[in-house]
Design brief:
The structure is a homodimer of 309-residue chains. Chain A is α/β, with parallel strands linked by helices. Chain A is built from 14 helices and ten strands. In chain A, the strands form two sheets. In chain A, strands 1-2-3-6-7-8-9-10 form an eight-stranded parallel barrel, surrounded by eight helices. A two-stranded antiparallel sheet of chain A has the order 4-5. Chain A is globular. Chains A and B meet through α3, α4, α5, α6 and β4 of A and α3, α4, α5, α6 and β4 of B.
């Protein structure tokens, strides 16, 4: 259960990558934006319509190649409630095509408030007896600065609904060390302590493979920490951002995998979404260019790590 | 600038409290829910309509009493995109009535993604030349586990648009210590280190009072830490949850204030929203009961801390 579904899709497609759907408006070809503005004006509705059509075209081309997509909530929230509607519809569209959906929300709170986030993104909301689905994700990224009170409300739901989470452990950004690399009295770092907590929470969500339903976000830009964490936290599956545009390559992410080529899923967003710009392809070819880049990324990584599973 | 507007409203109303709008469906009187279901069915739209009408009635009664409201995003997201529309409309309604709006989203990410969150909640999104407002908050709660890369994208916008942020420092929940109380090599705690960073970020957003535009979330359930942090971080304004239903009282929150009665705003959610239930008042009186509880809370705190400003 939990992240098993993701692992199975990775093995089936022999591809340990996820396409990040971070649809900044400037990533979307002009013709597509203009079509949406013609219908809805230059409004949040118009922009959200362009995002949804961009995403669906990408999903059509990416679905045979990648096991998962990862929409980043921020870009949908930036388009207000129409953006959130486009997020929900993108997720439904992707799941109907067999993709695993990781909602990148980095949500965090405690108790019943965290339960509300869990229901929002991984479960159902009870409206006086009707159980309705707000956003149909398979896994959610979360921030555990608040401790177990912020994570436990997710675990029961994950068990029941067969879902997973990814906890921020060591992020890919230059300043991630300001807090995460601080040394504790026991000689370990803050991010190491977070990894310890992931392993503990994971005991409550064992999977069919060695990995639990509690994964960790560990950046591709810190290969040394990736190697250390892969060894120290053998039951924690990694979601690795920072590949491609952020600077990480196949060699940088290789330490995230175990000897079976499992243990991690590598995200790329901009390099896939903007492949048509980089290739200087006609803008109508944006989705096919994204698929070509997804294949290149898959091949670069699998050449390095070998057969998966 | 920044949190000055909040401080001015606190002085004007002689009330250092904020009403948390965390509209769980069971908090909403049945007659109101039934009216909304009659129009939209037991759907996310129906539930969101009930939430909006509940909030607007509360805001009408609370606006003369409290300086600010704090909607908790989780409860709106749990109603999908219709919930997010109710959030945006609640915020507009509150601001039109002169209330300061603190969006409790605990958002966090880095770089351009954090910029998207900043635009979503405190700024404007550029849709090919049209600058549109997704969610019109005055301040946003954020989680700084990712370091400066997650905060700096907010500061420029806060300066330009006269907005503020509240960074999670020491939260009110029982397990907050698992990470936040860990001792660093220098003998200080993780939450103290976070407070140090708040003071540093705050230097970029000086206010007209001694407080910067970078505030901190510090729970009412840890009065000792409140006292320590008030002294150590004299330029950081506190948002204090945990009053009322979570167990904190006027004595517990008093250490959050400086000698002028400034330095903090105390949040209560359930005790205000559910005052009609606790008072055994007729359900039609829910908003007036909320106002009575808001007055009781204001009086309990101001009796303890004296005249503000």
């Amino acid at each position: 259960m939990s992240l098993d579904t993701l692992i199975e899709k990775i093995i089936e497609k022999q591809n340990p990558t996820v396409a990040g759907l971070d649809p900044k408006l400037e990533y979307i070809p002009r013709f597509l934006r203009e079509e949406s503005y013609a219908k809805y004006g230059k409004t949040l509705e118009g922009a959200a319509d362009a995002v949804l059509r961009f995403n669906c075209a990408l999903i059509d081309e990416l679905a045979p190649i990648v096991p998962a997509i990862k929409p980043q909530c921020a870009y949908y929230e930036a388009l207000g409630w129409p953006g959130m509607r486009a997020l929900a519809e993108t997720m439904d569209y992707a799941r109907e095509r067999g993709l695993f959906v990781i909602t990148d929300g980095k949500r965090n709170d405690i108790g019943t408030t965290m339960e509300a986030y869990a229901n929002a993104h991984l479960g159902k909301t009870d409206v006086d007896g009707e159980r309705l689905t707000p956003f149909a994700g398979d896994a959610l990224t979360v921030n555990a600065y608040l401790g177990s009170d912020g994570i436990k409300p997710l675990l029961g739901l994950c068990k029941q609904e067969d879902k997973g989470i990814f906890v921020l452990v060591k992020t890919s950004n230059p300043s991630s060390g300001e807090l995460q690399d601080q040394q504790l009295k026991n000689g370990k770092s803050v991010y190491y302590q977070m990894g310890v907590m992931c392993e503990q929470w994971g005991e409550l969500l064992p999977g069919a493979y060695v990995y639990s339903g509690v994964g960790a976000v560990v950046g591709a830009t810190y290969p040394e920490q990736l190697r250390e964490l892969r060894i120290e936290f053998p039951h924690t599956f990694f979601l690795v951002p920072g590949y491609g545009a952020q600077g990480g390559g196949a060699d940088d992410v290789a330490p995230a995998f175990d000897a079976s080529g499992l243990g991690a899923v590598i995200n790329a967003s901009r390099s896939i979404l903007c492949a048509w710009q980089k290739e200087n392809a006609p803008e109508q070819e944006f989705a096919k260019a994204a698929a070509r880049e997804a294949v290149r990324m898959r091949d670069a990584i699998t050449t390095r790590i070998g057969r998966i599973g």
